[in-house]
C-alpha cells in the first residue's frame, strides 16, 4: 500500500491562520488510502491504540475523553490520524501541546496537517515518526515505539528550553508578556523593543557581571558578608595540605574543606576531624577549583533559599543520601540501584544528581570512614551514609523564620544579585541563625529552580512567576505599540505613512514593509522586507519604541506573524480577484475569512482594528475583533458608517474634500485632500483610502490631530524624500 507522502512543510513561526502559537503545517498526499478510512482497515485501530493507549485522552471534535478513539471506530482518514499520533508522540517525549488540525484540500487525497510546534526540528521528527507508526499499524508490521520515544526525548533534552527557563517563560505567558528565544540555549527575551528584558536560566539582565564574579569567589563573598554583619563560618584560604591542617587546628575541629570557586557542591567535604581526612580533602578540592577554603563545620542540614528581588521566593532543605545493605549486594550494586531512580541524571531536568564516585570524592571519603569499599557487602539493614548534603528535596518555604529570610535577602544584596540561591546550614530553619550557631555558607548566581518546581516533599513554588514579577511591574506587559497592516493593495504606502506619523510624534519607530527595513528615518535594508525575519529584527531592537509591519498573504500563510498580538490591526481592502491557488486559497472570500482575518484576530482587547467600511469582506471582520473598531471610507453616507457613529464609534471619512475624524456626533477636520500631496488633490482615489487608513491607525494609537495632519501633509514632499521616505505614485 502506498506510503503517506509529505509534499511540503511550512514552519509557522508565529500566529497564523490556524492558531496564535507557532505550528508546523505539512501538506500530505495519502493516495489510495483515501479509500481506506480507519474503520475498514482490519486490526488497525487495535494495533494503534495498543501502541499508544494514551490516545484515549484525546477529546477530538466530541470534546470528551475518548473522542478520538470514537472517531477511529466510526472511520477517519490518515491525515487526521497523523495529526493525533504526532501530538501524542510529542506529549510522550516531553513536549505537551494539544493543538492540531487536519483539513482536506480541493485535490483528492491531499490534506493539510497542522500541529503545535514548540521546536520545529522536534515536531518535524515527530511527524516522520508518526507517519512510520501509522503505516506500520496499517500494514500490520512491527514498530519500535520505545526507540522512537528515546530518540525524541533526546532531541527535546538537547534542543528545547530547560525546566528553569521554561517555568519563567510559562509565567510570562500567563501574564501575556511576549517571549522570543534568542539562542539554541536558554537565552530568552521577554517583551519587545525598548520594553524587553532578558533571562538566561535563572539570571536576568539585572544580574551584574561584577555580582556574578563575586559570587563565584567564595572567600570574597564570605569576607563581604562578614563585614556587613552576616553570620558566616570562620575560615580562610589555604595553600597546601599542611596549611589546611594548620587552619583546621586554629579554627577548631571539625571543619569543612571546599574549593573557593566551584559550584554545585563539587569537592565539598564536611565534618572532617583528622589530619589525614583534611589533607585528602584538600587535594580533591583543589582539583575542582583554583584554591581551597577551610571553614568551621556548622552542624545541621543545608538549606537553599531562593531570593528574588530581595524577597524569599522558595526554600528547600537538603537531605543526606543513604543506601541500605541487603546482605547480598555490594556497595557498587546498591549505588547502581540508587542511580536507576528516574529522578537522577546529569541533565537540568533531573531533580537529583547521580552519585558517581569518580565525581564525588566526598562520597569515597564517607565510605572510607565506614571501613567500606565498592566491593564490600554490607549487612542487611545497615544504613550507609554516602553524602551528608546530597539531595535537595523537601520544600520548607513556610517554615523559614523571618529573620533567616531577612539575612538571606541581605546576603543577596551585599553580593549584588537580583536572583540568588543562598545556602544556609542550620539544624532548624524555623529558628533564628544566632540561636543555633547556624550560618550562610554560599551565595550563588543563576540558581537552579527545579528543586522548587518539583520537590520530593511539600508543594511546588511559583518561582517563575516571582522572577517575572520582579522584572515587570504590575501594570507592565513588555509590549510596545505594534501596528500590523494587511490587504490586497496599498499596504506598503499605509505602513510607511503610519510610521512617518509615529516618528513625528516623537517615538523611535521600526518599520518592515515592501520598500525595506527602517529604524527611525534610517533605511537599514532596501527591497521587500514585509516578512517574518525583518519584523523579528525590529522586535529585538532595544531602541524601538513602536513598530509597523506590513503583512502580505504569502507571508501569513507560509511564515506566520512575528508578533503575538498588536495594538492596531489595519485591513485595507480585499480585491475581488484576490486568490492564491498555490496555497489552496481559491477566491477572495477565502482570502478574507482564512487569511486576512488573522490580522484582526491579533488585536488586543485595548487595541483597535481599522477596517475599510466600503469593502464588505473587510467590514465583516469587525465581529472578530477583541478591541475597538475604527471604520474608514470615502463614502460618508454609508449606512454602516452611520450606524457605527450612532453607537458612539469612531470613523475616518471624506466629506466634500475634507478628511474628517468622527466619534459619535463629534467631528473634527484633520486636513483637506488638496493639502495632501499623496492624493494629488484627491484625484488618486486609492491614495485617499490609504491616507484614511493611516489616519485611523494613528488615531487608534492616541496621536493628536496636529501631528497626524503634519504627517499626511508632509509625506511625499521633497523634505520627506530627503529624510528617507521616497514618494511613490502608484499603489504598493
TrEMBL record:
Q: Which PANTHER family match?
A: CYANOPHYCIN SYNTHETASE, MUR LIGASE FAMILY MEMBER
List, for all copies, the residue spans of the domain called ATP-grasp: 222-472
GO MF terms on file? cyanophycin synthetase activity (L-arginine-adding); cyanophycin synthetase activity (L-aspartate-adding)
Identify which top EC class this enzyme belongs to.
ligase
- What InterPro entries does the annotation carry? ATP-grasp, CPAse_ATP-bd, Cya_phycin_syn, Cyanophycin_syn_N, Mur-like_cat_sf, Mur_ligase_cen
Q: Does the keyword Ligase apply?
A: yes
What's the protein name? Cyanophycin synthetase
Which EC number applies? 6.3.2.29, 6.3.2.30
Keywords, in A-Z order:
ATP-binding, Ligase, Nucleotide-binding
Keyword Phosphoprotein listed: no
Q: Which PROSITE patterns match?
A: ATP_GRASP
Q: Which organism is it from?
A: Herbaspirillum chlorophenolicum
